[in-house]
Specification:
CATH class of the largest domain: Mainly Beta
CATH superfamily of the largest domain: RimM
Number of helices: 2
Distance between the termini: 25 Å
CATH topology of the largest domain: Elongation Factor Tu (Ef-tu), domain 3
Order of helices and strands: EEEEEEHEHEEEEEE
Number of strands: 13
Strand content: over 45%
Structural class: mainly beta
């Protein structure tokens, strides 16, 4: 598996259920703050193996982000977007300082202990509210906290994350 850093499109969110009868739809955003997803345009959607671009419009940001998409004018059309991932062009994202990483940069990287025990590959990353978690798929799934005492080194060139972790845990 190659590193996800080679991808030109980055997942920034996912459509939820339709909202109302006029084509609005709930939105789950992975950006911080969540409404920052509207700073990126166009959005790219992939359905049935085909890419398409859409221009979003923020309708509400109360308990849920609600968006309208051009050419979507009824509930049935909005329902076709449910659970589709929302991508943006990677070039739109801000440059990071050394030592900072986008979650998508970590996905697919090899994870090994300081004693060179291979634990697997990063399947995905998520946030618990207190810290980020690396979900590592190997002979079994492990959830490693993305903290300085756990993540010792990230070597983007060699696609490897070195961790301080007991492989039996």
């Amino acid at each position: 598996m190659s590193s996800f850093t080679q991808h030109k499109k980055i997942i920034m969110g996912r459509f939820g259920a339709p909202h109302g009868i006029k084509g609005a739809i709930k939105l789950h955003s992975w950006s911080t703050p969540t409404e920052n997803i509207f700073n990126y345009s166009p959005w790219y959607l992939k359905a049935n193996g085909e890419w398409r671009t859409v221009a979003p419009k923020l309708l509400s940001q109360g308990n849920h982000l609600i968006t309208a998409i051009e050419d979507i004018s009824d509930r049935e059309a909005a329902a076709t977007l449910t659970n589709l991932d929302i991508y943006v062009d990677r070039t739109q994202l801000p440059q990071l300082s050394p030592g900072q990483y986008y979650w998508s940069d970590l996905a697919g990287m090899d994870v090994m202990t300081e004693c060179k025990n291979m634990l697997g590959k990063v399947a995905y990353v998520f946030n618990t509210g207190s810290n980020d978690i690396l979900a590592v798929q190997g002979e079994r799934e492990r959830m490693l906290p993305f903290l300085p005492e756990t993540v010792v080194d990230i070597d983007m060139h060699n696609n490897t994350i070195l961790v301080n972790w007991d492989p039996s845990f």
